[in-house]
Here is the input.
Amino acid sequence: MGRRVGLAVAAFAVLALAGCAANSSGTSSADQAAPAPAQENAQRGGGTPKQESAGTGEAQQAGTSAQQNRQLVRTATVELRAPDSNAVLSEVKDLVIAEGGYSAQEKSQANRASVTLKVPGDRLDPVMESIAKLEGVEVSRRELQTEDVTEQVVDIEARLANQRASVERVRGLLERATTTSEITDIEAELTKRQSELESLQRRYETLKGQVAMATLTVVISATGEPVVVQDENDFLEAFAGGWKALVTAFGWLLVVLGGVLPFAVVLGVPAFGYLWWRRRRRAVPVEPAASSSTP
Here is the structure.
């Protein structure tokens, strides 16, 4: 009996120890599990500023990239004064060619020269600054115009993609056509859509060309041009204009007289003869009739 009691006590003790071990292990595991969310929150809290700063940096980079991807058509005009216009014209062309541009149109006179240049869009500002720094050159006027055609370029790109897909669909229909009438109708539709696609492609290339190459017009006037007295010039010009107007008016008067003279001769001579005859008839005295005497 006492042995059985001892075994029962031992079993109870073992169970009690097992329960304590389980409680302690559960507590420790719970303690270990509890910090995990806290640690995760701490990591999240610690990582939030970095993530926010990274997101801000990406947003700034995206904004900068968007600004750089703007499609801009730029046109500039620069008027210069220099002792030798032709020499400066040659220097300006050399600057533009060195930057990857070329001369599109040129006009040169004794004391004046002008040239229209095509300059890479991203090199327009440096070229204008280099022109202003040429030796002996004075900038009298500078004008810059910028047109944003980003929306037009994006719109044409989307329309090009849709039109290419449309052409491919029609080509697929043409391959599956079996009758002559179907082939004729599909070929006509395919020709129409290909023509629209080519038109869009030309517009797109024109816009991209204007974006890629800016237009720069440079006008150079010589500083040693002779000065003409303004009063004398105005008097001579006014006199010449008045004399020209008088000659013109006299010429028109002669033209009018020449047109009226035949009618005056044909109609005026009979009218004059009739008036002369009538006036002469009135001038002849009428003799009074002799009165008859009665016996």
User: Anything to note?
Assistant: The longest strand covers residues 72-82. Strands lie at 72-82, 102-108, 112-120, 138-148, 213-222.
